[in-house]
Amino acid sequence: DGVTEVLAHRSHSLQDKFVEIPCSEDYDSHRRFEGCTPRRCGRGVTDAIITREEAERIRRIAERGLSLGGSDGGASILDLHSGALSLGKHFVNLYRYFGDKIHDIFTEEDFALYRDVRQRIQQRIAQVFGISSASMYLTKPTFFSRMNSTEAKTTHDEYWHPHVDKVTYGSFDYTSLLYLSDYTQDFGGGRFVFMDADSNKTVEPRAGRVSFFTSGSENLHRVEKVHWGTRFAITISFTCNPEHGIGDPVLA
């Protein structure tokens, strides 16, 4: 792996940490949106906008939703926006599959908390990158992930490959992750790794920690395989293109 530096230790509570990095050319092949498309690129970590208690409440939302399904392999997805839920080797639409029973699983308070947390993360990203929060739109996929050490059964379970979000999902301009469990306490492995030319920089998950970054090749990354325990997180992604925007999930 070459040299590995820890950008954010689990045991440290970080107010705000930001590392600026030159932007890649990935944004040039997409339509630019003034006041939003990254001109300043980099990565940040903060433990100061979501409390541990809020992270635990959100993790319970994920646990309740994922208890309805789950992948046969090590990576399960729950997307409250589209309704996508891992089930065996496939995905089902949670809302169609379970219908009115959804009201026994989730509450309006759950969705209000989810929305509030999403807005705080969006505002922090806008503030750090010097853009207008109103010019950013939530985009898909935005989802909960649950990872454990079960062997992969399909390519969807292989979460550990290096990738660039802007290349994988053209709509992404800013990516964020809210961690809902603790590295070394709830799981082993599973650190987030930025893969730079000179060294790797790791973020150790901690409940309530938000990691965010511009989505281009300047932030090539991967997640280590989880060796034991269960790792919960939410990926919340933003686009500058209103045509790729999605709404907050609603409990119909």
From TrEMBL:
<dbReference type="InterPro" id="IPR006620">
    <property type="entry name" value="Pro_4_hyd_alph"/>
</dbReference>
<dbReference type="InterPro" id="IPR039210">
    <property type="entry name" value="OGFOD3"/>
</dbReference>
<dbReference type="GO" id="GO:0051213">
    <property type="term" value="F:dioxygenase activity"/>
</dbReference>
<dbReference type="InterPro" id="IPR005123">
    <property type="entry name" value="Oxoglu/Fe-dep_dioxygenase_dom"/>
</dbReference>
<protein>
    <submittedName>
        <fullName>OGFD3 protein</fullName>
    </submittedName>
</protein>
<dbReference type="Pfam" id="PF13640">
    <property type="entry name" value="2OG-FeII_Oxy_3"/>
</dbReference>
<keyword id="KW-0223">Dioxygenase</keyword>
<keyword id="KW-0560">Oxidoreductase</keyword>
<dbReference type="InterPro" id="IPR044862">
    <property type="entry name" value="Pro_4_hyd_alph_FE2OG_OXY"/>
</dbReference>
<feature type="domain" description="Fe2OG dioxygenase">
    <location>
        <begin position="140"/>
        <end position="242"/>
    </location>
</feature>
<keyword id="KW-0479">Metal-binding</keyword>
<keyword id="KW-0408">Iron</keyword>
<dbReference type="GO" id="GO:0005506">
    <property type="term" value="F:iron ion binding"/>
</dbReference>
<dbReference type="GO" id="GO:0016020">
    <property type="term" value="C:membrane"/>
</dbReference>
<dbReference type="GO" id="GO:0016705">
    <property type="term" value="F:oxidoreductase activity, acting on paired donors, with incorporation or reduction of molecular oxygen"/>
</dbReference>
<dbReference type="GO" id="GO:0031418">
    <property type="term" value="F:L-ascorbic acid binding"/>
</dbReference>
